[in-house]
Amino acid sequence: MDARAIIAAVRDGDGLTPEAARWFAQGLADGSVSDAQAGAFAMAVYLKGIGIEGRVALTMAMRDSGRVLDWQMPGPVLDKHSTGGIGDSVSLLLAPALAACGAYVPMISGRGLGHTGGTLDKMESIPGYKTDPGIDGLRRVVTEVGCAIVGASGDIAPADRRLYGVRDISGTVESIDLITASILSKKLAAGLEVLVLDVKVGSGAFMKTIEDARALARSLVETANGAGCKTSALITDMNQSLGHSAGNALEVLEVMETLTGTAVNEALWDVTAALGGVALALAGLAADMDEGAAMIDEALESGRAAETFGRMVTALGGPADFVERFPDRLPSAPVTRAVLASRRGFVQSVDAEALGHAVVRLGGGRLIGTDKVNPSVGFSGLASLGEEMDKGEPMVLIHAATEAAAEAAEAAVRAAYVLGDSAPDEPPLIHERVG
After folding, report:
1. Is 186 a catalytic residue?
2. pTM
3. Domain spanning 335-420: CATH superfamily
4. Is 115 marked active-site?
């Protein structure tokens, strides 16, 4: 077996066998497959597809290209993955809530990609928090606390790390086959028993239409279940920021206000409860999704999720008093500027992707891989779809490092918001369940 034969088979529409997938994934991991061959393989998959059998084979082969964790826990091992959006800090609420309900959550997360925020970038806005504790550190914290939000170590799915970089420069990022294998190989390498997926749809999502979101959700669910992990997905709305804030420390602040009950964001809460309900039902910790959602509600309302979050932060190097002192512990930007409504009217539409790019340009994300993220910048007080505004009323509060950056962000915000004379129909938070 060799790379040329495998590439030719995919190119000719003959698919990808488990044996070929294992050979190619190992070659990606150890370097025996060249960048040119990796790019040709990605393009062949992009153009011809490999079907559900090929997706399962590639996912499992990339999972097995590195270390696969094995947990011996008294409760089920769960995780959640979101396809990305703006103001989406659900992971920070869901991980401790699931842990408070008896699950164990090794949440291996990523950094910002394009216009979307990254869970690791958000957690790193907490002073001292370490997202790279290594496998032994991950095991310790999950065992002691019940959850840990960390990054992938170098020996988790190395074939995916190599192919991911090749896809970025070969014009094959959009392949559902490759997206599916990339997402799931890392998640399944964490040794999960249950996975719940949050597939975003709308102006701030990678999938703009419900048809595209549904196709990705089905691919992910079928492949993960085919690989032996109980999985279901919710398609949730991203036609506006999920939270009222967008930006790393600002989103953590909103999460902590919700966890502690000082200022609850209902949209964040509702999506968290819905995803948690699905996960707990799949894991057998709840009789059905409704009972699971009620368990998540109770974990949030009682403060048990907040207490678990605080113990996780401390265990990973953050402040021991973070839950009590979070407003003082998070960084703040030196410049704030309110964007005032230019007329009376209702918020008719929001270009959420444009807002995400504006956060990146403020310094809240990376334009190139070597950029350093400024955790303090972003937006707060984001006006919601259908909200009625008076002329001169603040639509958004900008948090910036400089006046010039704030001015540029204001222009972006004004371009992203459309005000009209009538309120639009608001999209549902949760469109449908797949699986």
Report:
1. yes
2. 0.91
3. Pyrimidine nucleoside phosphorylase-like, C-terminal domain (3.90.1170.30)
4. no
